[in-house]
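Hi Q.,

Before the meeting this afternoon, I wanted you to have the NAP prediction in hand. No need to reply - just skim if you have a minute. The sequence and ligand are here:
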Amino acid sequence: MALLGASGSIGRQAVDVIAAQPGLALCALSSGSTPLDDLAAAHGVEHVQVGGDVTALLDASEPDVVLNAIVGFAGVRATLWSLERGVTLARANKESLVAAGELAVAAWARGGGLLLPVDSEHSAVFQCLEGRPRETVDSIVLTASGGPFRDRSRAELESAGVEEALAHPTWSMGPKITVDSATLANKGLELIEAHFLFDLPYDSIEVVVHPTSVVHAIVRLRDGAALAHLGYPDMRVPISFALTYPSREPTPLAQLDFASGLTLEFHEPDLEAFPLLALAREAGERGGTFPCAFNAANEAAVQAFLDGRIRFLDIDGAVSDVLARVDGSPAHDLDDLVEADRSARDLVAVA
Ligand SMILES: NC(=O)c1ccc[n+]([C@@H]2O[C@H](COP(=O)([O-])OP(=O)(O)OC[C@H]3O[C@@H](n4cnc5c(N)ncnc54)[C@H](OP(=O)(O)O)[C@@H]3O)[C@@H](O)[C@H]2O)c1
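Predicted structure with the ligand bound:
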């Protein structure tokens, strides 16, 4: 398999999973700028790329499976490459499905391969839906931990700094997704991701806050039953599920301990304090390249926040401003999409 984004949080956890599974072998590795010589030597990997477009790496290494763990829009080409060719895609990179949306779904239909989510919530939905006739499904519920600022009002977020935003209470992840969890943009991206992945209308996808992150998702069925997927928050479970699908190989991780007390509490998200969730839903419902613009503006604004150029509360303002200014016309090909991404980024006005 090709592991893209090998130096990141998901990439490093994937290396652990692969090392423990004799049936899995790496044929290609990529990163944005981190050297990968030691990792490549340890796994005998010949095809390595640091920075740039990864499609040449994929052409050369001819993987059976691609794990796309690149962060951001930079993952789009690898997602489209895999889907178009019917190569099994284990996709952690949620931004690619959000931004490429219809283009990705069309490539998936043409390629006819497997698209396995490596996101705890989507892996959970995938597992609850497996083998179930579509007409029996009523709706799905994605859970959100609420991030480090879960109980804060908008006024209390005025002073939120980078260090606090990076201190996630339940998940250990890369900086971009951690800030997205603090703003709830992550759940907005996941909402759009679920729409394309499971072909569900937006009004059949609900988001609830669930602070302990034990229930990853719930599928409601038309007869009133609801199936929930539970597990401790550890990405090695959905990574292992995708990489060993469908055999579900064992992992060394602890089983859930119900006797020691699990708190399963759920409540509505505060859309006034965290408007990015509602903005994502609106962008998804408007369709075209609005989801691409949402993602691009969010990426640019999060980077500006991490660099100390804007405040936490400026992130949603920047995204809202961009969405009001783009025309959202559909992308007919990758060039259109790249242009929609670039122009949305250019509109993010930061000092
Ligand atoms: N972390 C999680 O628990 C988690 C859970 C669910 C979904 N995801 C999704 O998985 C993806 C990766 O998240 P992460 O937390 O692992 O991020 P991360 O720790 O920041 O790692 C990102 C990886 O992408 C590489 N990269 C960055 N910019 C690139 C570029 N322009 N071109 C090519 N490669 C680039 C990085 O290389 P360098 O090290 O050289 O910068 C690194 O290998 C994201 O889409 C995220 O939403 C993550």
